[in-house]
Structure formats: C-alpha cells, structure tokens
C-alpha cells in the first residue's frame, strides 16, 4: 500500500463527543451508552461524512476528508493521510503541552518508507525533518511507524537499552524482516553521517501484543500502540474493541477545530 504524498491546507474539524466515565473505568451503564453513542455517530456519519471529499482536518503536511473519516468509522482500511494526521497531532501535543514526556518522539510514516525503498535522497530529507542529530541525542525513545506489504506496524528505539522493540498486530516473519531491514539502514545512516563513531549493536525484540484477526484494522492497532506507549500504559486493544477505537479516533479528528490530539 504505497503512501500518497502530503497535501497542503489548513486544519478544520467538526465537534463530536465520545462518552467515557470520568475515572476511565467502564460500567455496564456506560458500556451500553457507548454503544448507543457509537450508533448515533454512525448515523451522523452516513448523512454527513459519506461520499464527501470535503476536508475535516488539514495542515501543511496532511489532509483528511469526510470520506476518510467515514471509512475510519465504519470499518474500512485507513488512508495513509489518516495515520499521518494522528502522528502530526500527537507530535504537536508532545512538543507544545506538558501532557507527555518531551523525551519521546514519533516520526512521520515517510521516514521508514524512504529507508525501506532505498531512496537515499528521500532518506536524507526525511532524517533532517524527522530525526535530526539533536533530536536523536535528546530523546530517550523514538517511535517509527512502518507500512510494508500493506500492513502498518511500529518500531520503537529505546536508546538507553540499546534496543529496538517491534509491535505488530500480525505475527509474520515478513514484517519482522522489514523491521530488521529498517533498523540496519537507520543505524548505518547515523554511523555514516553524524560523526558519532561506531555505535553498539542494537537488538530487535518482538513484543507480544494482541492480534487483529481477518479485518482491516492494522492502522487502528498501530495508532493505539503509539498512544499506549506514549501515555505509559499497558496495551489493551483487541480485535473485539476496534469499533470503539474507530469511534474514538474519528471523534478526535472531528472534535474542536484547534484542539490537539485526543
């Protein structure tokens, strides 16, 4: 699934509220209410979002149309711009609020794509924009979304541990090989271009996480992997909860025009 090029524009979203209990716990009443609310959103989406190319969220780097949001909500395959939009918004929140640790960094999807394709010019451009030498030295954890063979997965570099952690909602050697390939090229670039000398070997560890089943939800899983790691909580998503997360992520795109991610 090739990534489309980013589009130009400005941010624009609509307002939808997601029902959650104040303490973050689910009661039977709230669980029932959340399903009722999901039905309300889906009815809204059919009338307002479907079959429309009007943008609900735009910035200089990415744009999300009403149709993208409709597909996100109703179970389709996420567009590349939807993934990119969540990464952009999360990075903005990390850098402009005290909500998260500033020593955590999330890269744009184009970075891993450039390395896996072997496009040296694009690699240099994406490293400059996503992981400068200063950013690399300042951050303790760097998360890199990867799309390969039509599947979204995640690699996280934990610098102090000298390890890369691999998160994938489908256990397959194909995606592990791509993660290893990215790690090798990424570390080779740093050694060759930044004058840091020979770097110690960084192993790659596959993390046991919930698997997605036969549905188009790898993007949903990956977004929640990122959220869970950044928020320092356990990863609890499972294939049975994907409708809930789709509604949550759709609301995040539609909610409060100038609000940060979630």
Automatic annotation (TrEMBL):
Q: Which domain of life is it from?
A: Eukaryota
Q: What InterPro entries does the record point to?
A: Nep1/2-like (IPR044613), Papain-like_cys_pep_sf (IPR038765), Peptidase_C48_C (IPR003653)
Is Hydrolase there in the keyword field? yes
**Gene3D superfamilies per UniProt:** Adenoviral Proteinase, Chain A (3.40.395.10)
Family statement: Belongs to the peptidase C48 family.
Q: What is this protein called in UniProt?
A: Ubiquitin-like protease family profile domain-containing protein
PANTHER family per record: SENTRIN-SPECIFIC PROTEASE 8
Q: In this protein, which residues make up the domain named Ubiquitin-like protease family profile? A: 62-229
- One Pfam family here: Peptidase_C48
What Gene Ontology molecular function terms does this protein carry? Answer: cysteine-type peptidase activity; deNEDDylase activity
Keyword terms, alphabetized: Hydrolase, Protease, Thiol protease
Any one GO BP annotation for this protein:
proteolysis
Q: Species name for this entry?
A: Asparagus officinalis
Q: Does the keyword Oxidoreductase apply?
A: no
